[in-house]
Amino acid sequence: MKTINRKATEIFLKIVALIKENNGHIELDNKKGLYMPLSAEKIDEIEGFEMYSLAHYKEQNGDLMADPEMCFLLAQNEKDSIVMPYSYRNDFMRIDQIDLFIEDGKIKGIRHEAVAKNVAFANTWLKNIELQQLKTT
Q1: Residue 39: in which H helix or E strand, if any?
Q2: pLDDT at position 90
Q3: Is 87 exposed, middle or buried (0-12, 13-18, 19+ CB in 10 A)?
Q4: What pLDDT score does 86 carry?
Q5: Intervals of the chain under pLDDT 50
Q6: How far apart are CA 118 and CA 122, in angstroms?
Q7: CB count, 10 Å around CB of 4?
Q8: Does residue 127 come out as left (phi exceeding 0), alpha (psi in the -120 to 50 range) or beta?
């Protein structure tokens, strides 16, 4: 199973901590319109994994459009954290890709090649989110 790198994991865990401090949902707009705000929320738990959504949204013709939205699985113990993206959505590009198969509340399969591509994107995107929304100086 391909997972995001250490730096991206650290950034992701900062976002998760903010989500937990704010009743399961946050919207970060620390640069006040300079960059797209980040909407982040805990969406579920399955088989010991926490599930989170991170998204940028734009409005088009009155509809909110994901640009993009990624969903992640988070597994943690006292020593380690593992984060794997399992979906990618970009409404402007008409992409809605789910790489995790769930049936009866259990993970039944993973599209490993697709996850690997999403890991590469997530590593870069999370660094950009840190620069755009988590660093205030």
Answers
A1: strand 38-46
A2: 93
A3: buried
A4: 95
A5: 137
A6: 6
A7: 24
A8: alpha
Please report the pLDDT score of residue 136 as a whole number: 56
Helix, strand or coil, per DSSP, at residue 33: coil
Question: 90-111 in b/e burial notation, b at 16+ Cβ within 10 A?
Answer: bbeeeeeeebbeeeeeeeeebe
Write out the E strands in 47-132.
49-60, 63-76, 81-90, 95-98, 100-103, 106-110
Contact 8, 83 (CB under 8 A): yes
Residues 6+ apart with CB under 8 A from 34: 132
pLDDT digits (tens, 9 = 90+) for 46-76: 988 999 999 998 888 988 888 999 999 999 8
Q: Residue 61: what residue type?
A: N
Question: What pTM was computed for the model?
Answer: 0.90
